[in-house]
């Protein structure tokens, strides 16, 4: 992974009412002074709305993002703009993707911060701005390394939120006993790509989502055979199969028997 090529790094403090389109990726630390803000991604999706009650946060933006905002007299937001091909935005999942040796690592577009986190991050952004302005090659290199380090905060946050997302995905599969939705549809509901979810699901449960779903369906079928008076056709419908033929095929593939032989 190459280092980001910095274009600018500065703090913004002036009162301002503006509509803006971004042409390069950037990382922003918002501290205070916002009156209101609406931000749209490159596909026109509304990513977030904010006002004076919004807590400090870190944000990522990509080329094509548009924002309307108004800041007041106590404005403080730091912005580092850069060229960085390893950082891309995926409008389908509304997440950023960091290319690490061919592996695409998902990053959230925004992280809310506790007040206690602000001083250290402000110091980091101030140092990046000072080093970039120095025009000294070593310091500029240090600034680029520190900018890359800021992305670690997004990566850490995504790892934490991915745990919750994976669990929500598993629960959604369990509740969808009739398979009314595909795996892609369940992933879309949670705002995450199927491949990203598959990797996270396999890492946590040591089984793929498709294999897990089939195993849960077999458990349900076995329970219905053992504990209910439903017909074979009714059992097939209860687990989301269109006809008995599909049920026969599933049981024969896994047990080598038809329903009547169980």
CATH fold title of the largest domain:
Jelly Rolls
User: Whole-Å distance between the termini?
Assistant: 55 Å
CATH superfamily (homologous) name of the largest domain: Regulatory protein AraC
Helicity level, as a percent range? 40-55%
Tell me which CATH architecture of the largest domain applies here: Sandwich
How many E strands?
10
Residue fraction in strands? 25-35%
Helical segment count: 7
Low-confidence stretches at least 5 residues in length (pLDDT < 50)? none
CATH class of the largest domain: Mainly Beta
Radius of gyration: 25 Å
Describe this structure in words.
With 262 residues, the protein is an alpha+beta fold. It folds into three domains: 5-150, Jelly Rolls, CATH 2.60.120; 164-207, no CATH class; 211-261, Orthogonal Bundle (Arc Repressor Mutant, subunit A). The chain has seven helices and ten strands. Strands 1, 2, 3, 4, 5, 6 and 10 form a seven-stranded antiparallel β-sheet that branches. Strand 7 and strand 8 (95-100) form a beta hairpin. The protein is elongated and about 80 Å long. The mean pLDDT is 87.
At a glance:
With 262 residues, the chain is an alpha+beta fold.
Topology at a glance:
Blueprint: E1 5-12, E2 16-21, E3 26-40, E4 46-51, E5 57-61, E6 66-83, E7 87-90, E8 95-100, E9 103-107, E10 110-112, H1 118-134, H2 137-175, H3 183-189, H4 194-205, H5 209-227, H6 232-238, H7 244-255
Antiparallel strand pairs: 1-6, 2-6, 3-4, 3-5, 3-6, 5-10, 7-8, 8-9
Helix pairs in contact: 1-2, 2-4
